[in-house]
Structures are given as C-alpha cells and as structure tokens.
Amino acid sequence: MSGAAPLDVVADFPAIPVGWAYLDTAATSQKPQPVIDAIARGYAETYATVHRGVYQRSADMTLAYEAARRKVATFIGGNPDEIVFVRGATEGINLVAASWAAQQLRPGDRILLSQLEHHSNIVPWQVAAERTGAAIDVVPLTPDGRIDLEAMAAMLTPQHKLVALAHVSNVLGSVLDARAATELAHGVGAKILIDGCQAVPRLPVDVAAIGCDFYVFSGHKLYGPTGIGVLWGRAELLEAMPPYQTGGSMIDRVSFAQTTYAPAPTRFEAGTPHIVGALGLAAAIDYVETIGLDRIHEHETALVRQARAALGRINSVRLFGPDDAAGIVSFAVEGVHPHDVGTILDEGQVAIRAGHHCAQPLMDVLDVPATARASFGVYNGPGDIERLVAGIERVSRIFG
Ligand code: PMP
C-alpha cells in the first residue's frame, strides 16, 4: 500500500501494544511517554497548589501552571490572558453559552449552527436560546459533507448574533474554511465560536489568522490528559463577560455587602484548577510541535486517502465525507449494523468507534442510525489500514 510514510512514533505510546490498531483517536488520543512523565513528575515531585501558597513549592507550581497557559497561547496564536483553562471543549462552549450568550442574546436574536455539529455544540445553544428567547438556524451540508458556506451566506441576517461551527467534523473529518466562515459571520455583525476539538490535534491552528471570537478544544484529543481543555476568547469579549462558575480563586474582593471579580481569565477559573492537567497539556503541545502539525496533517490526510481508496473497493462499503478529510473516515457496511462491524474488527485487534458519535442530527441527515468510524493519530501507519480493510473484508464475508 503506497501513500503516507509512517511517522514512526508508536514506540512513544506505552498503551499501544504491538499488533493493536488503535483507530479511535477522534474519541480520545493515546498518551506519549513525555506526557505521562510530565503528569507523574507533577504529582510525584513538584506538586503543590497554585496562586495561593506563600511557600516556594507553590510559587514554582504557579509559574509552571502559568507557563502552560503561555504555551497554549503561543500554540494557537492568542494571548495568555485570553486562555481560560476549562475541563474540555464541552465546558468551554457551556461557559460561552452561559456567560456571553445569556448576557448578549435577546428575544428575536438568532444563533447559526450546522448540521454536522457535535451535541456539545448544539445543546448549550438550545438551552441559551430557551433562556433568552433567541432562535436557532441550521446550515446544511454540501453533498460531500462540508458545511455549505454559500448556504450560510444566504442564511445570515443582522438578527444573527452568534455562529458556532466545528473546525473539523468528528464524524466526516471535513475541514471548515474557518476564516471564510468568520468573515461571513462578521459581515452581519455576528460573533463566531469555532469548535476546534478535532482540528487542534490535526492541523496548524492560528486564531489570529482565522479572526474568530471564541475557539475551544480538549486536551485529551491532543495527546494530553483528560479533564483539561481550553477556551480562547478575544480579550475584550472575555473582559466584558460575567462569571460562569463562582467561588474561590475568581474573585477580587468578597464581602457580604458586595463581591467583585478578578479580571479574565482568572474570573472564569473558579476553584482549584486541574494543575497537573495543565502541565500535561503543555507537554502534549511540546510533543506535537516536535513532530510538527503540518507533518501530522499531511500524514493523517494521506492515511484517510489510503483508507478511503481501499474501503471504496469493497462493494458493500458506503463512505461518508470528503476525500480530503482530516484524519477521520466514517463508513457503513451494507446490511451490517456498525456495532457488529466494530465487534468483528475488535476480534482482529482493530479498535474503531461505532455509533452516532454524539452527532444524532448528522445521522438523520445521512439517513443512518449510526456509522462505523476509523480515526487516525500520529501513531498510525499504512499497516493499520491494511488491518482495517482486512477486517471489513471479513465482515463482508461473514454477513455476505
Ligand atoms: N466537539 C467535537 C467536534 C468533538 O469531537 C468532541 C469530542 N468528541 C467534543 C466537541 C466534546 O469534547 P469533550 O468531550 O472533550 O468535551
């Protein structure tokens, strides 16, 4: 099989045994040793709280935690005071929905989403819409599974105050032209939030070049730990936003008469944060930067092309999404439920995801109850695709 040269980094990932094809990176990525080491060191050697301690260990940990914030900022082209550490993309979107949207939206205002959004970029907006009296519109997809920007341009009105779109679809792998989408949104005066969960691990992201207003992603899909993620927000927007959660760490001064809040991003980080998670995320950023996001993108798009070409030769396979998808391929095997596909593949040590992928509205558009999804990471190579294809041929024989 020709195409992508493997990046040859699988040995960095102790939880990937030889002979196991892990093709579920879109759900969560495996962790390289430097990330595991950074987390272990954080707990075993340098652990202390941040921002409060008067002792040296805590001061050092605070420096490390804030250095992680600066690293994230540089990684995505933002400023450190625009980086809010959250639990993950889900919390980042909920934060904007509960804070910015609750403050800004009025009855009659409109929110624009797309048909391919993850539930975490749908449900928070439904709740915000219910609370504020705003309405939601949904941009359709092109036949090959991209958010249709022409349709979006035709739909946008001055009533639209917010657009929220996935940079890369977690089901189809289709890549949004985030800059073009941002220009369209700004053209009617709307703000735009980009859900970068599947983009940040798969292609270089620069929020300044995109020009968007909010950008969210999760650490655990970027080879980092669970429980830590990022909301990037334009400084002037964050500064004007009311708190999301309240309590310790996010205040300026508390009294029973009146409480004032800290500036952003501290205002949005109530409670003791996931200190070591931030260190793990910083190590993950170092790791992917050592390989290079351009190389990772090239590698994963080549794997997608190989997988699509090989799966496309099997008569019973129906492929979803575009040929130039970023690292993700969804498909169906005629007459076989995706869960059965996943189970048979697992017998051959090939791990894929089968289900609705938290994108039930997209399943309705594709007119399927679920899809089988193979998604790639830095550790995958052509051998994994050969195993996938052999597994699907076996599925076809069994159900043929
Ligand atoms: N958006 C997209 C596109 C995703 O793929 C995911 C995770 N599957 C999320 C949002 C939610 O991420 P998390 O569960 O890490 O908060």
From TrEMBL:
Its EC number is 2.8.1.7. Residues 22-388 form the Aminotransferase class V domain. One of its GO terms (biological process) is cysteine metabolic process. Signal peptide: none annotated. The keyword Transferase applies. Pfam families: Aminotran_5. Keywords: Pyridoxal phosphate, Transferase. SUPFAM superfamilies: PLP-dependent transferases (SSF53383). It catalyses: (sulfur carrier)-H + L-cysteine = (sulfur carrier)-SH + L-alanine. Belongs to the class-V pyridoxal-phosphate-dependent aminotransferase family. Csd subfamily. Catalyzes the removal of elemental sulfur and selenium atoms from L-cysteine, L-cystine, L-selenocysteine, and L-selenocystine to produce L-alanine. NCBIfam families: sufS (TIGR01979). This is Cysteine desulfurase.
